[in-house]
């Protein structure tokens, strides 16, 4: 289908509201995207008409909920081009997915002195779980810096892999710089050295097609609330060979087959890693959101956002008092910036909000990157498929007001 941004905007009811007497210009999708009506309807229907626990009943509502819930596994597998829906583990989002890898796969396998290679661009969700292993098991974290433009050289990541390296964990797209990383090259090089690769796909999956079969990675995590779906939903692709090496780290619910006083028999993967009552309606809502994106076409979304990104770069480059962090040629539609002078990111964000422009301000859960860039905080405008060039113009107007106030 052709890409019609106005038709897409009409699918998102919140975009018609005003904030502080101004039309809402929502530029914080990198933190959490807004929800289309089809997702809102699916959530409402799930609670109002179709709710029951899954996998545990033979009555109509339980079977209905189970069928809808399990169908999402196939939807996610198609979305990521995973070989099988059995490669998909549901969770509450990327944070849980990466922690699951840390506890289920890495913790039983890594010992003191073993290494994990990270890029300096990683979100805290792809840093803190590895710090747990550093604190508790003596694992060593090796960091790979980005260059002055915010690019991550795949060869530098590969060169950082040594005989004690047991995992490479990198983002597919920086949530601060917008840099898109060549994760296929990193995975190929790491596998040649016998090292598995985990990819944080939180940002990338909403902006471009993702093909885990082509990338060849061992783990690929996504989060539902960035994919126009509900918070508390997510999934992680796990390659079959890695899945066989994992141990469950949460117990209860459908992750077991039998429990006795002296023993427990676990369910088959992926359910072995899905303990307790899951986010039933949240997961169903995520599936609807992904189907909505696929109906538009990920190639169409990527092409539209690429043009929007180009236009935004041109407009921001015209502000010689604005410092945009990251100049990568691969940059997606995420722009972090500071203003010349003493204006703090929080002050800038507050002024923009008065004009109806919603941006993020702070460290964006990426403190090592902030330190590397030499800044305490930035403002971040993150775009989505429902944003327009008019939104960019509104951002520029609001930034010019900031400059007038703080210069």
Automatic annotation (TrEMBL):
It is an enzyme of class 2 (transferase). GO terms for biological process: cysteine metabolic process. Catalyzes the removal of elemental sulfur and selenium atoms from L-cysteine, L-cystine, L-selenocysteine, and L-selenocystine to produce L-alanine. Belongs to the class-V pyridoxal-phosphate-dependent aminotransferase family. Csd subfamily. SUPFAM superfamilies: PLP-dependent transferases. NCBIfam families: sufS. This is Cysteine desulfurase. It comes from Yoonia maritima. Its cofactor is pyridoxal 5'-phosphate. Residues 25-395 form the Aminotransferase class V domain. InterPro entries: Aminotrans_V_dom, Aminotrans_V_PyrdxlP_BS, Cys_dSase_SufS, PyrdxlP-dep_Trfase, PyrdxlP-dep_Trfase_major, PyrdxlP-dep_Trfase_small.
């Amino acid at each position: 289908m052709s890409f019609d941004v106005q038709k897409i905007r009409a699918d998102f009811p919140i975009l018609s509201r005003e904030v502080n007497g101004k039309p809402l210009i929502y530029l914080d999708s990198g933190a959490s995207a807004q929800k289309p009506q089809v997702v809102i309807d699916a959530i409402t229907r799930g609670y109002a008409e179709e709710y029951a626990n899954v996998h545990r009943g033979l009555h109509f509502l339980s079977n209905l909920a189970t069928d809808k819930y399990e169908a999402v596994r196939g939807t996610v597998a198609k979305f990521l081009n995973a070989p099988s829906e059995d490669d998909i583990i549901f969770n509450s989002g990327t944070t849980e997915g990466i922690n699951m890898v840390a506890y289920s796969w890495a913790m039983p396998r890594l010992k003191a002195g073993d290494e994990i290679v990270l890029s300096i661009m990683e979100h805290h969700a792809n840093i803190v779980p590895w710090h747990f292993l550093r604190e508790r098991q003596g694992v060593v974290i090796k960091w790979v810096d980005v260059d002055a433009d915010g690019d991550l050289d795949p060869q530098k990541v590969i060169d950082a892999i040594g005989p004690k390296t047991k995992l490479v964990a990198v983002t597919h797209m920086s949530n601060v710089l917008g840099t898109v990383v060549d994760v296929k090259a990193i995975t190929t090089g790491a596998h040649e050295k016998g090292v598995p690769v985990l990819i944080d796909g939180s940002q990338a999956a909403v902006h471009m097609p993702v093909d885990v079969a082509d990338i060849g990675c061992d783990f690929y995590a996504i989060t539902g609330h960035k994919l126009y779906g509900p918070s508390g939903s997510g999934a992680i692709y796990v390659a079959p060979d890695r899945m066989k090496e994992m141990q469950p780290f949460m117990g209860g619910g459908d992750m077991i087959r039998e429990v006795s006083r002296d023993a427990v028999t676990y369910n088959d993967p992926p359910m072995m890693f899905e303990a307790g009552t899951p986010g039933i309606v949240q997961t169903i809502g995520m599936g609807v959101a992904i189907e909505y994106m696929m109906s538009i076409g990920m190639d169409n979304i990527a092409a539209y956002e690429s043009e929007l990104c180009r236009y935004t770069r041109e407009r921001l480059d015209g502000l010689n008092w604005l410092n945009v962090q990251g100049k990568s040629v691969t940059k997606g539609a995420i722009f972090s910036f500071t203003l010349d002078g003493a204006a703090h990111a929080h002050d800038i964000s507050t002024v923009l909000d008065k004009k109806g422009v919603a941006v993020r301000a702070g460290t964006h859960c990426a403190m090592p990157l902030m330190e590397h860039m030499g800044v305490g905080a930035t403002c971040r405008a993150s775009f989505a498929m429902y944003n327009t060039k008019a939104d960019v113009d509104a951002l520029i107007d609001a930034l010019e007001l900031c400059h007038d106030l703080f210069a």
